[in-house]
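step 4 of 6: structure.
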Amino acid sequence: MNKKQTKKMTALIYGAMGIALFLVVWQTAVAATDFGKIFPGPLKVLTGFFQAVITPIGKCRIQGHVAISLWRVLVGYSLSAVLGTMVGLLMGASRLCKAIINPIFTMIKPIPGIAWIPIAILWFGTGNTTIYFIIFVGGFSQMVMNTMAGAENVNTELVGVAGVLGLKKNRTFISIVLPATIPYIFAGLQISLSTSWMAVLAAEMITATSGCGWLILSGMQTGNMVNNVIGMVSIGVVGLILAILMRDAERRLCAWKER
Amino acid sequence: MERAVISLKNIRKSFEVNNKEVQIIDGISLDVTKNEFVVLFGAGQCGKTTLLKMIAGLESITAGVIVIDGKPSDGFHDKVGMVYQTTALFPWLTVMGNVEFGPKSRGISKAERRKKAQYYIDLVGLSGFEKHYPVKLSGGMCQRVGIARAYCDDPEIILMDEPFGHLDAQTRYMMEEEIEKIWAKEKRTVIFVTNNVEEAIYLADRIIIMTECPAVIAREVVVNLPRPRDMTGDYFLALREEISALVDIPRENTGGADEE
């Protein structure tokens, strides 16, 4: 085992110990104090979770709710990623486009995605379209801002170098601007993934009858706190997995950045 | 005399700074023959690099004509390659990707450009590093990539803009020997900018000594020493003294334009 692996192992062990300690404290607190009256213990949550895998809560089982939320995120997030990158590149590459779009954009940008929920409901009703829209609005501005910053920061010297080496002017975008911008696009994808995941929950709490957000809310409405907590835990787990996948993809595509 | 591969005819360059015209280059004429190694040498900060950039097509020419292969050249020229002070490698491309960039841009088939790139990667001593990204390489290695990249584009004229300026002294000596070997094996016309006297004498067939701003040619020195040169030889040291003394002369005495 080399040094790096040993370090990784140690970190893993400490991490597992931390989680174990947390669970023990939680269980003890629930069993030994009045905290148990207002919050379910880890064992109860675990049994609740296994139950939810078998018997549906509301429209579907827990995995169904997770899948529904994931799908919604996927749709809204992909839309925001593709359109946001395009608009960002356009603004970064053309001063005219930036001059036109930027002022409006700067005004709209600080409005959080969830502030759009009421209008979205009026526009699209309470269906999936509203949820896609909310996720899209949140992710879109992140993508635009990051991509634009990347496209603006392209080293102009390299454009000249490429010209000396015979690169045709109409290839500059594909060969220089795009690859130089990819790390920025990835930073945007990371941030907008987490805001998308947040947005889907908020939207589902208000305007859905399924998904993780609905699950949490229904836990409150029916007084079933176990449902509430398993909803939260599954959100945490899915969010973690998404972040890991994202980091992995970044490491592959932006290997040239790593020292 | 052999016909010049490249001729500069009364080149001038001025920039506008705060609504004031600032003269950087004040009429430089120079003929360089095929496979000649010419060093532009001067202590000043301005002029030399700008001149190279004008030849490469990276800067506009205020006045004068650059003639390459008998034809006036304006903008990029496919016979001209350049090695940069900052190395200016494409960080997202591997060593191979950087070296094959020129032929790839010019639409040369993958098999052919790979073979060519491999030849120059081997020539600069980077065999085995083809798949490395620049960020993982040392300064000296990056500059080797820069040299291979310039060569691989098949230029007749290679411009080198203080390529070893950012390297530590030890690496610099090594790279000077290296570039001499590469050039001996793959002769090209080289115009090399430096502010280091030893480097100039070690490499040049002919040293063009330039004044401070606005730059003009102060003097030319032909170096008639067998290669590779011994930096501690008597003639070498005498030449170094002579050139160093020249550079210390105030500009008024070297034929430069008067200041405002």
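step 5 of 6: annotate
 - The interface with chain B takes residues 157-158, 160-168, 171, 175-176, 179-180, 182, 255-259 of chain A (CB under 8 Å).
 - Residues 43-257 of chain A form a domain with the MetI-like fold fold (CATH 1.10.3720.10).
step 6 of 6: archive
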